[in-house]
Amino acid sequence: xxxxxxxxxxxxIPVLIIDDxxxxxxxxxxxVEGGLSVLEITLRTxxxxxxxxxxxxxxxxAVVGAGTALTPALRQAAADAGAQFVVSPGLIEGEGPDGAAxxxxxxxxxxxxxxxxxxxxxxxxxFPANIVGGAxxxxxxxxxxPQAKFCPTGGVSAANAPEYLAxxxxxxxxxxxxxxxxxxxAGDWVRITALAREAAALGQRAxxxxxx
Length: 212
Ligand code: 3PG
Description:
alpha/beta; TIM Barrel; globular; binds 3-phosphoglyceric acid; 9 helices
């Protein structure tokens, strides 16, 4: 699957930090049930690779990816574990779009965006979105970089996601708010499905106003 196809499957990609491998499959199922089928498991806990392995193998309808991949080796290891895409907070030196699994690199400036475009990427994570200019920055990038598409992540919430999703160069947003740590720890999958449902509904963009 191409990264663009993955990023257009759902308006929100849950960014997941999973401490207990036993939570992985029920958490993923709760999110998919709510309508969020693209899941990013960050490589920030010792069990992250095993979570990817289980979620990729056991959750029907999910597209499972790895986040916080900082090196080529982590990209490869995530793909080997079953990740269908890989996200990095920045550009990974020497890595292009095609590889073990499609890569969504992060950028925070126009210079980084130009380096990413030169490396062959067209889709980028804007990170940390709210700090590096938010929706205003993406509006400004649209004219000089018409080929670039974005998944803003970092400080995105149910409250500000619609502003991002209304932009033509935004394919989706990423965020951790749909899987709060306390809900995961409590195994409150009902709450997580409800949050996912609300987030999935953000993708129903408002119809264009009728003229006259
Ligand atoms: C991250 O890398 O942690 C993601 O960007 C998620 O950010 P958030 O917790 O602000 O949604």
